[in-house]
Amino acid sequence: MGYFVLVPDNLHKAGLEILRNTEGLEVYAPGKMAREETLAVIPRAHALVVRSSTKADAELLARAENLKVIVRAGVGVDNIDLAECTRRGIVVMNAPDGNTISTAEHAFALMLALARHIPQADASMRAGRWDRKKFVGTELRGKTLGIVGFGRVGRALAQRAAAFGMTEIAYDPFVPEDVARHLGLSLCSTLDDLLAKADIISLHAVVTEGTRHMIDAEAIGKMKDGVMIVNAARGALIDMDALAEALRSGKVAGAALDVYEQEPPGPDFPLLGLDNVVLTPHLGASTHEAQAAVGVQAAEEVVNALLRGEYTNVRNRDVLEKLP
Ligand code: MLT
To answer: Which residues contact 249 (CB under 8 A, 6 or more apart)?
Structure first.
């Protein structure tokens, strides 16, 4: 009997091909599945491959009586209940390599859009106006970019910012000083130090109890007047009410967001009515290249786990002690 692989989110065809061409796997991947359908099929699954929309929560896991592995085609595993997976002996892996450059490029695009008011100028022209005075911007050259979270994406952003003549500083309590020095930038010893020095702050941290709402009213108060904020990591890093207030007062000159605490954000999302804001619908990893790369990595991880007992990029390492 083969292994049943359930793919309830849209996985790139390069990944699906690997799964479908592997002997011993039966693949069910009809495209984006409704929650009810996923719940109905999950009891058959030995492997589940998700992107961000399928929630592998306690309700789903309770029905997943044959499930051995969940692979996230992407980085963030915040849609997966890791503790419950560990309790049930389910290995959770992610595919962290393929979307680094796309996400860094998107953060950079947001920064440029913010500095040069590109979406606002575009909307103005479409409305029949030719307003060259209203949209005077700022150069990135010579500005200090503060990168919060200096992992893969933060580092890729730093490389790109260097080419634009920016001064870069970073804060990441898990990265040794020599790694940053090797990349030609200085590591701040505290977040406050970065907040006080940066002209533009770009967030690239994961959400933990320690980082949730790390950008709140108090943190914003420590920033330079007229700072710009970019977030292409996770929405929960920012207290949105505090940011909205700071955008209204002008303390924060502009914010560009790709991610939201609730996705999609509701109609009462406090930034929707503000002019000095650029918003995109979680597009950081949405390039053909990134989706193909994470699709392939996720598929290879499924094959290696089910057929060879090999696990890479495990997000709940404690579970490995429970495996037979
Ligand atoms: C990720 O976690 O991989 C990115 O945020 C992109 C995504 O959620 O698909």
So the answer is: none
